[in-house]
Write a structure and sequence with these properties.
- The active site is at 443.
- With 647 residues, this protein is mainly beta.
- It has three domains: 38-158, Sandwich (Immunoglobulin-like); 163-311 and 340-410, Single-stranded right-handed beta-helix, Pectin lyase-like (Pectate Lyase C-like), CATH 2.160.20; 436-647, Single-stranded right-handed beta-helix, Pectin lyase-like (Pectate Lyase C-like), CATH 2.160.20.
- The protein is 11% helix and 38% strand.
- The chain is built from seven helices and 44 strands.
- The strands form five sheets. The protein has a 33-stranded parallel sheet that branches.
- β35 (503-506) and β36 (509-512) form a beta hairpin.
- The relative contact order is 0.08.
Length: 647
């Protein structure tokens, strides 16, 4: 009897301890900062800022992320504890769950000479939990000798309750035959399900295969606040190929899935596919893992009427609205405004996009515009060769992008901030954290600009791996755009074959890149450019020119295979000034390159750079060029332990 009473007391105390714990807030701006204050010393090896990203959980799972400790030089992994018990390591967990992991793992398996910077994984997907239950978590660093750090600060999180309403559209009359237009049925389900919903777990829309098939055709759909939109594994939500199914909305570019009108608390999830049906497909390729990878016909402004599908319909409608008499300028502006993206959130708050496969937009992939607290994780983008098909685009505050595979038609991950005078008083695009992604093809790995009008600030990109992209780190703008970029940290990453046209063998697969058509004109591992193309000029130029400052590149490796192809390993170009526009000459300032190793790449070409540092740089094999450094019109550059030094 006494034992039984003691048992009840222990259970009571356990329940009481959890019921009185305060749920930890979601991840915030501090995660995008490169250095952190902690209760321990600055040299501590304890992980920092453990948290759950916005809406990155459901009834049975919770995703955890954390910042590396300030002292992480010998850290190789992290162990996760739930309610005080070890549940696994971060690397093993990414092996099981991240679509980026197998590509990253192969990248390092091919690194026979141990040349590249090694990344670490700082996320963990906890599974097999119970609905509506409170759990506590901590994380510990693991060093190269297997020693653990002390516990991080604790995170307390409650899983979601079961959905109150689930609307399976196939049971409401939608047909997955790939022919029937289901827009009205799906939209009606969204509106009814979200009515009076107070949480994204009050309402779920489910797109799943039915007896008719697994491809659900639809026009533009308007998501509502407090809902989950799930596309089940094996199911495809395919965009209509007709412009009439995408009504034009003022100030918002068309999309298949919209989140506008200040909506909040929305999740787009599932292991299905969103297909924009934007352009004609070419022959798919087999990637280095032996997986099928979607490719599309080369698409440009000049080919929309030849290779476009939805893109052609939307562009032709713009021509028809002008009675066939449209100027080249207006046609160019239409090309930048009428084509559909796959997902667009505008002025939204608390958004999570996870696990979805994204293919064939007429324009961009995912766009987060003037929004706050947005997350994109565990997705797979396949948009290569599609003109302007950025993978993940953010013009928002507090963006987290991790564990994604991107094979993109334009920039893989890009931060933007508008153009010209119209956005000068907009809030900056600020606090972005990009980590543990694999960027396979695309114009740039992690990119700032070219729209920089309201400033892009406090972006941390770390522990990413790139292969075959046209450029690596890319910061770009024009003087007329205005604003600029500040406090961008690009670190602890590895890149191979950036902007080259080599013949590459990897894992028994041969890739002949000799006929690749690059579109950016630079093909560099590191780019800071003030001479980017203006593109559409349907906006009023800024009062003062844009510029870049406080850019930090640290612990990054680049191997370009050979020096026969590719652009400069580093390219920095400022702005020469324009008296008629009232613009002075501008320089990039306070740029740091530290702990960089580059092999088999063409010389750096640097101009209009001031007050900057190059430290611990090792360059091997820059071809038949006299020096790996070409410097012109630079001021107060400092070179410390650089091999070889500039002449």
């Amino acid at each position: 009897m006494a034992f039984y009473s003691l048992f009840l007391l222990v259970i009571h105390l356990f329940i009481y301890s959890f019921s009185n714990k305060v749920i930890t807030p979601q991840c915030g701006y501090q995660n995008s900062l490169p250095f952190h204050q902690s209760s321990d010393s600055f040299e501590s090896n304890i992980p920092l800022n453990l948290c759950v990203p916005t809406l990155a959980y459901d009834q049975t799972t919770v995703t955890l992320v954390w910042n590396k400790p300030n002292n992480y030089s010998n850290i190789i992994d992290y162990n996760i504890y739930m309610n005080g018990e070890l549940i696994g390591g971060a690397k093993e967990n990414n092996f099981k769950n991240s679509p980026a992991f197998p590509y990253i793992n192969l990248f390092y398996n091919e690194d026979k000479f141990n040349f590249h910077t090694k990344i670490t994984y700082h996320s963990f997907l906890v599974k097999n939990l119970e609905p509506n239950k409170i759990y506590s978590f901590t994380v510990r660093s693991v060093d190269e000798n297997g020693n653990e750090s002390k516990d991080s600060a604790e995170v307390v999180h409650q899983t979601a309750p079961n959905y109150k309403k689930v609307f399976d559209v196939s049971k409401l009359g939608a047909k997955g035959d790939g022919k029937t237009l289901n827009t009205k049925i799906i939209q009606n389900a969204i509106d009814k399900c979200s009515n009076n919903s107070k949480s994204p777990f009050d309402c779920k829309i489910l797109i799943s295969a039915d007896k008719c098939g697994r491809i659900f055709l639809s026009g533009a759909l308007y998501l509502r606040s407090n809902m989950t939109f799930e596309i089940a594994n094996g199911t495809i939500l395919r965009g209509s190929s007709s412009f009439v199914d995408y009504p034009l909305i003022k100030n918002v570019v068309a999309a298949l899935l919209y989140g506008i009108d200040h909506i909040k608390n929305v999740r787009i999830i599932g292991f299905g596919t969103i297909d924009g049906q934007g352009w004609q497909s070419s022959s798919d390729t087999i990637d280095e893992l032996g997986n099928n990878l979607a490719y599309y016909e080369n698409s440009y402004f000049s080919t929309w009427n030849l290779t476009g599908i939805l893109a052609r319909s939307q562009m032709q409608a713009a021509v028809d609205r002008a009675n066939g008499n449209i100027s080249s300028t207006d046609l160019s502006n239409a090309y930048a405004s009428v084509r559909s993206s796959l997902i667009t959130f505008y002025a939204a708050t608390n958004i999570f996009v996870g696990n979805i496969r994204l293919i064939n937009p007429a324009y961009h992939g995912i766009r987060f515009l003037l929004s706050r607290n947005v997350v994109c994780a565990y997705t797979r983008t396949e948009t290569y060769n599609i003109n302007n098909a950025d993978g993940i685009q953010s013009q928002s505050i507090n963006t987290i992008i991790f564990n994604n595979f991107l094979n993109s038609g334009d920039d893989c991950v890009v931060f933007k901030a508008g153009q010209g005078q119209a956005v000068e008083n907009f809030p900056p695009t600020q606090y972005g954290w990009v980590f543990n992604n694999f960027m396979r093809e695309g114009h740039g790995v992690v990119v700032l600009g070219s729209e920089t009008g309201s400033w892009i600030k406090e972006i941390l990109a770390e522990d990413n791996v790139a292969f075959l992209t046209e450029n690596g780190m890319r910061v770009k703008s024009t003087a007329q755009t205005g604003g600029g970029c500040q406090n961008f940290y690009f670190r602890d990453s590895a890149m191979r074959e950036i902007g080259t046209k080599n013949i590459i063998e990897i894992n028994g697969h041969l890739f002949n890149r000799s006929n690749v058509i690059y579109q950016s004109g630079s093909q560099c591992a590191f780019v800071l450019s003030m001479t980017y193309s203006l593109g559409s000029t349907n906006w009023v130029r800024a009062k003062t020119p844009s510029y870049f400052l406080d850019i930090n590149v640290k612990s990054v490796t680049v191997d370009n295979g050979n020096t026969a192809t590719g652009g400069p390993m580093i390219s920095v170009t400022g702005y020469s000034g324009n008296i008629s526009l009232g613009y002075p000459e501008t320089f990039s300032k306070n740029v740091t390159f530290e702990n960089i190793k580059i092999i088999r790449a063409r010389p750096a070409n640097i101009s209009r750079l001031q007050d900057s540092l190059f430290k611990n740089i090792l360059i091997e094999d820059w071809g038949n060029f006299q020096s790996p450094w070409i410097l012109n019109n630079t001021e107060n550059l400092k070179f410390v332990n650089v091999q070889p030094m500039p002449n």
